[in-house]
Write a structure and sequence with these properties.
It contains four helices and three strands. By secondary structure, the chain is α+β, with helices and mostly antiparallel strands. The protein binds zinc ion (ZN).
C-alpha cells in the first residue's frame, strides 16, 4: 500500500533535505545517496534505501539518524552496542525533538 503525504509521509526530496540538514549540522563531510540494497553507512556516504520514500517520518528519520550514528562510532562499535546507541539517542534528541531523553541525561 502506498502511503500519502496527507498523513505526513516523507517524499524523496524531504528525506534528502533531512539527511543534508543533519549531516551539515553535525559537521560531517558525508553525503546521502539512494540505494535499493538496504540502509548502510560506507564513508563518505550514508546509503538510504528507496523503500523509505513515502513512509512515516518517525521510521524514515530513524533510519537516516541510524546510519549517521555509525559515522562517529565505527569501527569501535560496529555491532549496534552501547556506544552506537548512545550516539543515536543524542541524534534522536537533537533532530526528532524527544525531550525526555534530555531530561534523563541531565539528571544522570
Ligand atoms: Zn546499523
Amino acid at each position: 500500500m502506498k502511503l500519502t503525504n496527507n498523513i505526513g509521509c516523507m517524499s524523496k526530496a524531504e528525506i534528502e533535505n533531512f539527511a543534508d540538514m543533519v549531516l551539515r549540522a553535525c559537521g560531517y563531510d558525508c553525503t546521502m545517496r539512494w540505494t535499493t540494497a538496504g540502509n548502510i553507512m560506507i564513508t563518505p556516504f550514508i546509503y538510504i534505501d528507496e523503500h523509505n520514500i513515502d513512509q512515516y517520518p518517525y521510521l524514515t528519520k530513524y533510519w537516516v539518524l541510524h546510519e549517521i550514528a555509525h559515522i562517529d562510532t565505527w569501527p569501535e562499535d560496529d555491532r549496534h552496542g552501547e556506544i552506537f546507541h548512545s550516539r543515536l539517542a543524542e541524534l534522536i534528541e537533537q533532530f526528532m525533538g524527544c525531550k525526555s531523553f534530555g531530561e534523563v541525561k541531565n539528571n544522570a
